[in-house]
Design brief:
Shape: globular
Number of domains: 2
Radius of gyration: 21 Å
CATH superfamily of the largest domain: Metal-dependent hydrolases
Structural class: alpha/beta
Oligomer: single chain
Bound molecules: zinc ion
Strand content: 15-25%
Helix content: 25-40%
Length: 466
């Protein structure tokens, strides 16, 4: 593949919303979105770029805290009697308190390049790192947000940048702890920041809103942000029910479980994305399904942190939109996330292919999960601002992935089982070619900025961990 920008592609096999299709012609518009997607075109037209391996859409990474990439692999020693989410958080805060804008940009650029290599073409930044190390706003209060946007631009990934309502240390506290001073943001400041991001006109950057969690924001502030966002079309993300302790504290403070509280207050709609939603009950799942809200599951991070297992079969059966996120970035490849999404259930239930649905014509675990994560991506990323859909479909941004046909995991595998092998036969190398908005940002496994980005990341890591 050599064209940096080809406006017509032809793939012998491509993943469209209804599954694999043969002989697919894809034409890009000047806006970087798909203008035509037509299967069954037997001959590639003259001038079309012929894709020699199945073509699949890039996926939305629906949950990221970019600065935590600086911490991946560095929290894997237990130095006290027990280690859980809360002790991990203490160590994570130490990084959060030190990182400066230049370091954040370097860390995020490395992360975003790796996410592209791992098959994500859009990342949703759940960004609660806002202020200077002493807790005071920067001269430009959005300095750290722009560091993330600059990193996304350098790597070439799409970015949903989401400032975070964060104002208290817990259900029973009215203020933040001193080590949370960089996170402080009111409903009004979140709304102002999101409005400024939306108006910035940066290419491939859109705005979303975040409520850190019910423990970190007072009900009145959540309702205030909800009111400000009445006409807002972008996504609204919240960490919810990740830890049993959070569920217990929420019950004690409000008389309701976290998801139950969001439902009871009438807040949820199709813009809302419930991140983790690990500890849920059947009635909560049914209520979320009725609201149209989605859930974002982060299998590798939830495993790394010992959070527990989401009720994946329950969410699937209820028809709730599901996306995945790499969250703390202990892995940066959606194939590994999808694999562990089902493996967790297999280990717990002593069954295989838990996510498959042969009764509805979906016997492939990988295809069902990948199709769902693709379809659900638009809402999680707030796509309507620039394209109404996600995937290889007219109107969606022209993002696509191509693997090397010589990849051992897929060598000799029938094309119909290609996605099964990509997810469940590991390791698989990073994607060979990655397209974002009609431009190849990775070609032949090569990202043009690799050397610079890696050098700056290495320097930032050395500064942080010296
Ligand atoms: Zn998170």
């Amino acid at each position: 593949m050599n064209a940096d920008r080809a406006s017509v592609l032809w793939a012998a096999q491509a993943w469209l919303p209804d599954g694999w299709q043969q002989n697919v012609l894809l034409r890009m518009g000047r806006d970087g979105c798909w203008a035509e997607v037509t299967p069954g075109v037997v001959q590639p037209p003259a001038g079309a770029l012929v894709i020699d391996s199945p073509l699949v859409p890039g996926l939305v990474n629906a949950h990221s805290h970019a600065f935590q990439r600086a911490f991946a692999g560095l929290a894997e020693r237990r130095e006290s009697e027990s280690d859980d989410f809360w002790s991990w958080r203490e160590r994570m805060y130490r990084v959060a308190l030190r990182v400066n804008p230049a370091q954040l940009r370097a860390i995020a650029a490395q992360l975003y390049m790796e996410l592209l290599q791992g098959g994500y073409t859009q990342v949703c930044e759940f960004n609660y790192l806002q202020h200077d190390t002493d807790g005071r706003p920067y001269a430009d209060p959005l300095t750290l947000s722009w560091a993330l946007a600059d990193a996304a631009d350098a790597a070439g990934i799409g970015l949903t940048l989401m400032p975070t309502l964060y104002e208290r240390a817990g259900f029973a506290q009215s203020a933040l702890r001193d080590d949370q001073r960089r996170f402080a943001m009111s409903a009004a400041s979140v709304w102002a920041a999101a409005s400024e991001i939306a108006a910035s006109g940066r290419p491939r950057v859109s705005a979303g809103l975040v409520i850190h969690s019910l423990r970190a924001a007072a009900p009145a502030s959540i309702k205030q942000l909800h009111d400000l966002a009445q006409g807002f079309a972008g996504p609204i993300h919240i960490h919810v029910a990740e830890q049993q302790a959070e569920v217990d504290d929420c019950l004690a403070a409000t008389g309701a479980r976290p998801i139950e509280w969001l439902v009871r207050e009438g807040l949820l709609d199709a813009r809302w994305q419930l991140v983790h939603a690990t500890h849920s009950q059947r009635s909560e799942i049914d209520a979320v399904a009725r609201s149209g809200a989605g859930v974002v599951i982060c299998p590798s991070t939830e495993a790394n942190l010992g959070d527990g297992l989401a009720d994946l079969p329950g969410w699937l059966a209820a028809g709730v939109p599901i996306t995945i996120g790499s969250d703390s970035h202990v892995t940066r490849d959606w194939r590994e996330e999808l694999r562990w999404l089902d493996y967790g259930q297999r280990l717990a239930r002593r069954q295989r292919n838990v996510s498959a649905a042969p009764q509805s014509g979906q016997p492939s675990t990988a295809e069902r999960l990948f199709g769902l994560a693709t379809r659900s991506g638009a809402a999680a990323a707030g796509a309507p601002a620039w394209a109404p859909a996600w995937g290889l479909v007219v109107g969606a941004r022209a993002d696509a992935l191509v693997a090397d046909p010589q990849e051992p995991a897929i060598l000799g595998v029938p094309n119909a089982r290609w996605l099964d092998a990509m997810v469940f036969s590991s390791p698989v190398r990073p994607w060979r070619d990655v397209m974002v908005a009609g431009r190849w940002v990775i070609q032949g496994h090569r990202h043009q900025q690799t050397a610079t980005i890696a050098q700056e990341f290495g320097q930032a890591m050395a500064e942080l961990w010296a």
